[in-house]
Write a structure and sequence with these properties.
By secondary structure, the protein is an alpha/beta fold. The chain contains 10 helices and 16 strands. The protein has 2 domains: about 130 residues, Up-down Bundle (Four Helix Bundle (Hemerythrin (Met), subunit A)), CATH 1.20.120; about 190 residues, Translation initiation factor eif-2b, domain 2 (Rossmann fold, 3-Layer(aba) Sandwich). It has a 7-stranded mixed β-sheet with strand order 6-5-4-7-10-15-16. A 4-stranded mixed β-sheet has the order 11-8-9-14, covered by helices on one side. Helix 2 packs parallel to helix 4 and helix 5 crosses helix 6. Bound molecules: 5-S-methyl-1-O-phosphono-5-thio-D-ribulose.
């Protein structure tokens, strides 16, 4: 199983997901700012992976202030770092969950707490978030695999695997667990325009794990369903409102509508940390717009008039009523009254 990041007690190494699948290049981030930039630039992406990277970015920042003697000397800088990190990407709530966990870690410090303790506790918390995410993904995978207990064709969108999490994946975790049970006939991987997380990353991961897949373009999903070739669609999430409305990669909503028409279960797989209980519905989810060049270029090659005007929302919001089940580490929560774990 591939990993998106390695924390070395002095820096964070990130596999550059912009260069995959053809090049496997690791980038060492030695500062909080370089981790923040890596998140903004999509070197690391996927909601849980963004959260883990942000936590490690804060840990690196503390390490880089080891010349200070106490928490009192560092506190202001710590808060500035949290603010900077919070500005990297707006939609994935896992980022804000991870930063809140960092904040909880420092509550117990007093002005005289030695800097060595500060560094140690922050790094330990960041590591714990990472380890928790792997356990969480495995639980999500195993619960999700209970939905269909016979060989099936499953369609997935974007990349929700080891690269998008600390490991194993959410929606792709469900696929992995189904495969272990002999219940994957084929995974339909849609390429996920405009940034191609499906064709570049999901196809790469499934290939590495020898899980049978077929790549399709996004606009083939309707025909595939009409031909009876899709038994379930499983996707991840960037933020789930308390009523179950779900923000995920642009194109997700369209798949959910298609599932409704074809009577196919549309399943969302995500950790409890992706549920934002502060918001009642999807209307309150901030949707990030990405730069025009991510739509007008593919791997640096222009595919549109250079002066084309562009709308490039990175996510859409699927209404809860279209979701058959939300799978978390706590189990399968069936719609329409999901009873999400609080
Ligand atoms: O823009 P990205 O690549 O960060 O978007 C990723 C997604 O939308 C994923 O489906 C989501 O974060 C879940 S990842 C387990």
């Amino acid at each position: 199983m591939f990993s998106a990041m390695k924390f070395n007690e002095s820096n964070l190494e990130l596999i550059d997901q912009k260069r995959l699948p053809h090049e496997q290049i690791w980038i060492a981030c030695h500062t909080m700012e370089s981790v923040a930039k890596a998140i903004e630039d999509m070197v690391v992406r996927g909601a849980p992976a963004i959260g883990c990277a942000a936590a490690y970015g804060i840990a690196i920042d503390a390490m880089n202030h080891q010349h200070l003697s106490t928490w009192k000397d560092y506190e202001k800088n710590f808060n500035l770092s949290l603010d900077r990190m919070a500005k990297t990407r707006p939609t994935a709530v896992n980022l804000f969950y991870a930063l809140a966990e960092m904040q909880k870690t420092v509550v117990k410090f007093t002005p005289t707490t030695p800097m060595q303790t500060v560094i140690h506790d922050i790094a330990r918390r960041a590591n714990a978030l990472y380890e928790d995410d792997i356990r969480t993904c495995r639980a999500i995978g195993d619960h999700g695999a209970d939905i269909i207990k016979k060989p099936a064709n499953v369609l997935t969108h974007c990349n929700t695997g080891s690269l998008a999490t600390a490991g194993y994946g959410t929606a792709l975790g469900v696929v992995r667990s189904m495969h272990q049970r002999g219940h994957i006939r084929t995974v339909w991987v849609d390429e996920t325009r405009p940034y191609l997380q499906g064709s570049r990353l999901t196809a790469f991961e499934l290939g590495q794990d020898k899980i049978p897949y077929k790549l399709v373009t996004d606009n083939m999903a309707a025909y595939l369903m009409q031909l009876g070739q899709v038994d379930m669609v499983v996707v991840g999430a960037d933020r789930i409102a308390s009523n179950g409305d779900t923000a995920n990669k642009i194109g997700t909503y369209g798949l959910a509508v298609l599932c409704k028409h074809h009577d196919i279960p549309f399943v969302v797989a995500a950790p409890k940390a992706t549920i934002d209980f502060k918001i009642n519905s999807g209307k309150d989810i901030p949707v990030e717009e990405r730069p025009a060049k991510e739509l007008k270029e593919v791997q640096g090659i222009s595919i549109a008039p250079v002066d084309a005007s562009v709308w490039n929302p990175s996510f859409d919001v699927t209404p809860a009523e279209l979701i058959y089940a939300i799978v978390t580490e706590h189990g399968v929560h069936r719609g329409p009254n999901f009873k999400l774990p609080v």
